Amino acid sequence: MNIGFFDSGIGGLTVLRDALALLPNENYLYYADTDNTPYGTKTREEVKRLAFRAVEFLVSYNVKALVIACNAATSASVESLRKEYGFPIIGMEPAVKPAVVKNQNGGKRVLVLSTALTLREVKFQDLVARVDTGHIVDMLAAPKLVELAERFVFDGPEVETYLRELLPWDRINCYGTIVLGCTHFPFFRKALARMLPEGIDIIDGNRGTIKHLYEVLKSANLLNPSPDKGRVLFFRSGVPVKDPEVLEKYNRLLRS
Ligand code: DGL
Predict the structure, then answer these.
(1) Is residue 61 domain-shared with residue 10, that is, in the same domain?
(2) Separation of CA 228 and ligand 1 centre (Å)
(3) Whether residue 87 is found in the same domain as residue 210
(4) Which of 13, 37, 190, 252 could form a cystine bridge with 9, CB 3.0-4.6 A?
């Protein structure tokens, strides 16, 4: 049995990377919906339809659990998917809570970078209303980071120019934490860390999601008992990835 992962593209590889570190002997299916990327600029209904299509495909390969390795798809579809399927479904959630806990007494603010869809969805709005009692959370959509990542451009002049335009540099020191609320964004951690002043931490929700996956699998007795290392099969919008160059790029990202 497999653990299915899906994302609009390569972003979910940042989550799968953590899964491979914690649960190395599981077998994984990774579905990158590259024909339909990006999700973050689409409507909720469109993304929900695409998410159902991806999950239907993964189910045909036998999954025992699913990770929606995409914040936008989680916002648009996690509840409906859970109603439809009986296996455990783990979604993403921007790490707003730990960021607020860390900053609420220190006088610094929190900046959440994500996509337009995630930021306007009720799931995120509810999360902020629940945890941001001191009103220290700001948010910003960064759609071009998804586009750059899909071109495997993670650093360099194009990334720097965009980040210079995007971030509020005139008040950057009022932030204590930047939350990466899109699974494509951890690919830019190095560029961000270099450009930001020291003392601003950059966090994502990936490890928390994978810890949750582990606990859910454990309590449902679904962990793979085999001591052998598992494998990952990749698909792009339903087509098995066979091109060695693409496979090498994906595997390199999983090792990075
Ligand atoms: N990686 C996705 C997320 O976490 C979606 C990015 C996109 O396709 O816009 O939201």
Answers:
(1) yes
(2) 32
(3) yes
(4) 37
Could you report the per-residue pLDDT of 88-99, keeping only the tens digit for each?
999 999 999 999
Residue 229 Cα to ligand 1 middle (Å): 29
Q: DSSP letters of 27-81? A: EEEEEE-GGG---TTS-HHHHHHHHHHHHHHHHTT-EEEEEE--HHHHHHHHHHH
Domain co-membership, 38 together with 105: no
Instruction: State residue 110 phi and psi, 5-degree precision.
Output: -120, 135
Q: Which one of the listed residues 182, 203, 217, 232 is annotated catalytic?
A: 182
Assess whether pLDDT exceeds 90 at residue 197: yes
Residue 71 confidence (pLDDT) above 90: yes
Residue indicated by tokens 């036998």: 62
**pLDDT score, position 242:** 95
Q: Which of 46, 115, 147, 150 has most ligand 1 atoms within 8 Å of CB, for mutation? A: 115
> Are 115 and 164 found together in one domain?
yes
- Tally of CB atoms within 10 A around 74: 27
CATH code (residue 166): 3.40.50.1860
pLDDT band of residue 113 (cuts 50, 70, 90) is: very high
Active site residue 174: no
What is the span of the domain harbouring residue 83?
Answer: 2-92+206-255
Residue 226, pLDDT > 90, answer no
For residue 54, the CA-to-ligand 1 centroid distance in Å is 14
* Residues 199 and 186 placed together within one structural domain of the fold: yes
What's the total number of domains in the chain?
2
pTM beyond 0.85: yes
Q: Which of 32, 67, 70, 180 is catalytic?
A: 70
Residues contacting ligand 1 via CB (< 6 Å): 7-8, 11, 37-40, 70-72, 92, 115, 118, 146, 182-184
For residue range 21-49, list pLDDT tens digits in order: 999 999 999 999 999 999 999 999 999 99
